[in-house]
TrEMBL record:
Entry protein name: Cyclic nucleotide-binding protein
Stored CDD domains: CAP_ED
Top-level taxonomy: Bacteria, Pseudomonadati, Bacteroidota, Saprospiria, Saprospirales
SUPFAM superfamilies: cAMP-binding domain-like
Organism: Flavilitoribacter nigricans (strain ATCC 23147 / DSM 23189 / NBRC 102662 / NCIMB 1420 / SS-2) (Lewinella nigricans)
InterPro entries, alphabetized: cNMP-bd_dom (IPR000595), cNMP-bd_dom_sf (IPR018490), RmlC-like_jellyroll (IPR014710)
Length: 195
């Protein structure tokens, strides 16, 4: 667990400075958990109780359409990054998304009550959360622009630039869904790509 906590602190320090005083309280709130592949951590309709920090494995959040047949992968998480259904966690309202492990996963997690206590006790934790959320919003807006404005090939190339390692780790149907590309188009683009 010490290695995982060091990874968490390094990740946080890259966003905003973390004092030793804040770190002492922060590290005490995280618990290690392990899940098998294809485990649903949060289901639509449930309220997200945890924020996760990924130390091993890949997870995805997805939306299941009203007919329960069509799904859209909205995000992948992998080390080192946070995971969880953020809107449900922050608002403590039922999730509209599912969160599942795609591979066996080792995570650290913090409960909502502990998270709230840290926000009250440490103004610096509020600053850290603000800086992280600003980065998340920036990323969401860039991704939304790509989905709406890029051609299938441009989306595919952009993804290859950002996360080429995912091609060998995640089923291609999920990658196609994430990119909002038809699976047959994804296969064609993959066949012509110079990797």
């Amino acid at each position: 667990m010490e290695k995982d906590l060091r990874s968490l602190r390094q990740f946080l320090e890259a966003i905003h400075p973390v004092s030793d005083e804040l770190w002492q309280d922060l590290q005490a709130c995280w618990q290690p958990v392990v899940f098998k592949r294809k485990t649903i951590l949060t289901a639509a309709g449930e309220t997200e109780r945890y924020l996760y920090f990924v130390t091993e494995g890949i997870q995805r959040a997805f939306y299941l359409g009203p007919d329960d047949r069509r799904e859209a992968t909205v995000i992948f998480t992998y080390p080192p990054s946070f995971s969880g259904v953020a809107d449900s966690f922050l608002t403590q309202t039922p999730s509209t998304f599912y969160l599942e492990t795609l591979t066996a996963s080792r995570l650290l997690r913090i409960g909502h009550d502990s998270y709230q206590e840290l926000l009250v006790k440490h103004p610096a934790f509020k600053d850290l959360t603000f800086h992280f959320m600003a980065q998340v919003i920036k990323g969401i807006l860039v991704r939304q622009a790509e989905i709406q404005c890029f051609t299938a090939e441009e989306k595919f190339r952009s993804f290859l630039t950002r996360s080429p390692h995912m091609l060998n780790l995640v089923p291609h149907k999920y990658l196609a869904s994430y990119l909002s590309i038809d699976p047959s188009t994804f296969s064609r683009l993959l066949a012509t790509a110079k990797l």
